[in-house]
Design a protein that fits this description.
67 residues
Length: 67
């Protein structure tokens, strides 16, 4: 199981707000939003998002080139 901490991100909460924060991912799945330091394993891969936006589930549904 791979654990990743994505920090220094702008989290997008659709229909609500954006806020600075961090995400803890476990095998590519969100395990926690703004986890306390104690919840982040010492061996977690740490990535600085540089303030970039992180949005849930954006999928490009454009049909260009399909049939």
């Amino acid at each position: 199981m791979t654990t990743t901490l994505l920090s220094n991100a702008t989290l997008v909460f659709p229909g609500e707000r954006t806020a600075p924060g961090r995400l803890l991912l476990s095998s590519g799945i969100i395990a926690a939003v703004n986890p306390p330091d104690a919840a982040v394993p010492a061996d977690a891969l740490r990535i600085d998002a540089g303030g970039r936006r992180v949005t849930p589930g954006l999928i490009d549904l454009h049909p260009h080139g399909v049939g």
